Amino acid sequence: MDFPEGKLELREMQRLEGHSDRVWSLAWNPASGTAGVPAMLASCSGDKTARIWQQGPSGSFDCMAVLEDTHTRTVRSCAWSPCGKLLATASFDATTAIWEQIGSDFECVSTLEGHENEVKCVSWNASGSLIATCGRDKSVWIWEMQSGKEFECVSVLQGHTQDVKMVQWHPFIDVLVSVSYDNTIKVWAEDGDDDWHCVQTIGEACSGHSSTVWALSFNEGGDRMVTCSDDLTLKIWNTSGNPSESTGDGYGPWKHVHTLSGSHDRTIFSVNWSREGVIASGAADDAICLFVESKEKMIDEPFYTKLMKKEKAHAMDVNSVQWNPKNPRVLASGSDDGIIKVWELAERSG
Amino acid sequence: MSEKFSATLRLTDLNDFIAPSQDCIVSLKKFKPKSEKPENQEKFNVFSKTTSPTEAVKISLKDCLACSGCITSAETVMLEKQSLDEFLSQLDSDKAVIVSLSPQSRASLAAYFDLSPAQVFRKLTAMFKSIGVKAVYDTSCSRDLTLVEVCNEFISRYRQRQLNSGKVRGQELPMISSACPGWICYAEKTLGSYILPYISSVKSPQQAIGAAIKHHLSQKIGVLPDKVYHVTVMPCYDKKLEAARDDFVFSTGGEGENDHDASGMKIAEVDSVLTSGEVLDLIHSKSIDFKALAEAPLDKMLTNVDEDGNLYGVSGGSGGYAETVFQHAAKTLFGKEIEGPLNFKTVRNSDFREVTLEVEGTEVLKFALCYGFRNLQNIVRKIKIGKCDYHFLEVMACPSGCLNGGGQIKPKTGQSAKDLIQRLEDVYMQDVSIANPLKNPIVKSLYDEWLEEPGSEKAKRYIHTEYHPMVKSIASELINW
């Protein structure tokens, strides 16, 4: 895919209004947006609710459901199961709720309790059998779905020394990555004896971040990941081993390949890698930036360049950017201004 | 918080920068918060920032227990130094110093020095006496006392539930063991009032031997309780917190002993706790060739040792609670004699195992061992939603239970943690014969001379305790609006 610099723009398609407080996180339903299933986006907010937005025949999104009266504090993160039938929401009320779509309604079918306090993020593994959560209690929890949508805790991981901001499963193997206020990135894997262990810690000494790491995202191939930080950089990581052939110790460690700096001048809160290879970032400078791998192979190492910066994408901090997995030219963003925007990456008109 | 405390206890550590009410009020660590997005302020930011302390403050264990905050690693270091130094300084005082040794610590030292538990016990007795300790006892002995009380409590809870069937469901079962201080701390601080009624009211073996020494033995040997300095040797750091609980401190003065008499002198059942590792440090610091040390005879008054000098006790590295209660309940309630060791079936992992008894096709007893935080977490959730069908749970905060306690001697170079656990399990009962606690002659004489009978008023007063839900401060409630 060619992305000529200067010829593309992020065109605002729609503003989704409804949340009465800051929008924290967004998630596209992975089973939607194809073959007659209208695209579906979940959002969650400081207003203690999550909202489900569905694309209508006209192409515009409407709010089809408000998930309320369950969480008693901010809903910080939301994630769809791979089958798209279940939505997990993580809240500052120390719980994670599991919602099931029944007709056009969403019902809370299970609650995961255990974190000491604020849960910051929730993520499903590729098969949908495991959920990871993390939070202010510095721990990462792994839960396994049992019959009847019951969840059992399979591990409580306490490697981080501060608030854990985000957890994300690898796109197809059961390897988990967490990022934290302690400035580190940690990689977790099962040890073959029914428990989980940290297999790699990436700190500042290994070309890691020098301040809070807020988010991470994998590329489609699962051999690279990108992290973003309060140190105003994005970092690209590469794994030499083939993570899809992870048997026993076949897991290859992640190595730093590139640092993107100078694009945002405030904390970078969110990063997301599109199926087509475009990295989007959202930051406290109210802007969204897009990056791609440079075609010019001047050096052996992969090299990424900024495609564009959308200034004033929102009126306030951009907390979440998410590419639509089915239509990789569509980006959603959520902000402290309480608004969700749907953007199209398109050729500059005129 | 130091990694030496159990993972369960560490999870209750809160030291973020967010709600001032939850900051450690007496932190030794100077924590400089980064400027950051006010993630947790939400809409009701009514708190003014507290000024951070600039000078180091001394924290007592009681401060920590009273707080919903954390224990810093700096403080743990202080705590360790305190325990050993204080113990050594007491040897020069006018107090009679008594040491009570746990069987898990015995096993830890036995594995380290490649000796048997009985050899370690006799050598430690010799070593402690050479530095001025008056007596060395055995917490397997007080554990047998607690096991008798736990058996008695279980039978009465089980019968109570049968009486209540059809009525509103009570909170009698499952009964949860109470010997693990990490679990008790987690239950009180985090889980709160719903879980506490399920926990056995019987004290841990550490506190039971403390009560026996300070309330009974001291009278018997004619020494005032305040002239006894009692140290336990434990596999566990959390035991230090347990010993410092207000529930385990009593007052003397006036007529007899009165727990609520403020005029008297405050006396702790256990004055300080040394871990297995700290005892090893002591051996090293005194340059003692431990393996070559002569063996001294054991003090029999509160030690599970028979006439021939052989040790005895229950099997099970975490105290054998589930096994002992299961056998007793099967016999008492259903007339079934069940020979040990019981065949516990692995449920989810080796730290979650269960055993059941069927009578005429009905499951009448269902017990489980539940070790480590993840298993504990699952069982607690089941209890909360009313889906726990166990009658008894032996809960321990550490994976693999007490033999793997945070105070145990660390693996040697080249030894994996798993290898060490296996070694400890092998050595634990190496020259210790299995004996039924209900037939323990020392326990029998403790009842005869002191406690009367299991579950008596005196037993309740001295061998049982209470749990207290941690009341969250008003400020921390406010943030939940």
Give the overall pLDDT of chain B as a whole number. 84
Structural class of chain A: mainly beta
How many structural domains in the coordinates of chain A? Answer: 1
**Multimeric state of these chains?**
heterodimer
H/E topology pattern of chain A:
EEEEEEEEEEEEEEEEEEEEEEEEEEEE
Residue windows where pLDDT falls under 50 for at least 5 positions of chain B: 13-32, 43-57, 68-74, 254-259, 473-481
Could you give the order of the helices and strands of chain B?
A: HHHEHHEHEHHEHEEEHEHEEEHEHEHHH
Shape of chain A: globular
* Major beta-sheet overview of chain A: 4 strands, antiparallel
How much of the polypeptide of chain B forms β-strand, as a percent range?
5-15%
| CATH class membership of the domain at 146-202 and 313-439 in chain B | Alpha Beta
- CATH topology label of the domain at 146-202 and 313-439 in chain B: Fe-only Hydrogenase (Larger Subunit), Chain L, domain 3
Distance between the termini of chain A: 22 Å
Tally of alpha and pi helices of chain B? 16
- What name does the CATH topology of chain A carry? Methylamine Dehydrogenase, Chain H
Protein name (chain A): Probable cytosolic iron-sulfur protein assembly protein CIAO1 homolog
WD repeats (chain A): 16-54, 68-100, 112-153, 157-188, 206-247, 311-350
Function (chain A): Essential component of the cytosolic iron-sulfur (Fe/S) protein assembly machinery. Required for the maturation of extramitochondrial Fe/S proteins.
Family (chain A): Belongs to the WD repeat CIA1 family.
